[in-house]
Amino acid sequence: MLKKLGVYLSLIYIGLVVVPVFIKPSEVETVVAMAEKNNNEKYDFQELENYVIGVVAAEMPANFNEEALKAQAVCARTYAVRHMEETDSRDVPYEIYQAYCTVNDMKEKWGENFDEYYSKISSAVNDTKGQIMIYENEPVLAVFHSMSAGKTEDSANIWGGEIDYLKSVDSSFDSASPGFTDRKVFSTSYIKDILNKNRKSIAFGEDIILVTERTEAGYVKTVKAGNEYFTGRQIRELFGLKSAYFEIEKAGDTIIFETHGYGHGAGMSQYGANHMAEAGISYRQILEHYYTGVELAKIKLKS
Predict the structure, then answer these.
(1) What is the pLDDT confidence band of residue 294, given thresholds at 50, 70 and 90?
(2) In which domain, by residue range, is 215 found?
(3) Which of 69, 160, 172, 284 could cross-link to 17 by cystine, CB 3.0-4.6 Å?
């Protein structure tokens, strides 16, 4: 299973109005295969926890609710542990497409709030120490994004591969997040130029660019531009849009993209997690909501 999901990992690197009823997940104790190598050297778990502090500080606003910060800590740790197992490495992976802040970075970023924020994030990491998410007894691919468009997206619609625990789920609270809606305006000549550079055979008619198909979650699946078809993800990347959930409007010699949400849309919505936490939902319940069917596991050294 892990080898199969590893294929999707390479693809990923390229790039609640009503609170649902939650079932409290079981927390399992597991010995992760990274605990001890043949030479009996141990992994530096303190370095791993310090790394998680740096990731949470970089990836999530420090003024978010503590339960949201805990959820982010588990995501960051899981993402790192998965990479360490896949590469059979005992080194903490500092460059795996997770942002990371050093202590000096945090001091510069937070200024006079450093002590308060560092203590808050450190507590969130310590309260979840050693915890990761597993599915079928393997660390999950714990992807996350800033905010969904109201629902998260199924991984198959983004990267083309089914991942059982990365299914579309409700995240209605996201609509109340700052920057939920964004608009970008381009000249029609610019649109044509960018699309023509991508597809030399393109020939434009009266309708320059149109959305032709959406996924069940509402994200754009297919766009027709002239005589060619693009995926919503391709259009998002070509024009630097915040998400693949967008509407297109033609106004004179301009084309307007209005987007909802921010990010690829799979896994945990960070703003959604914060809204849920503010509503009294625990980090365990947040994680189980965004990652379908996962369990919380705790890594520990072999005796």
Answers:
(1) very high
(2) 181-260
(3) 172
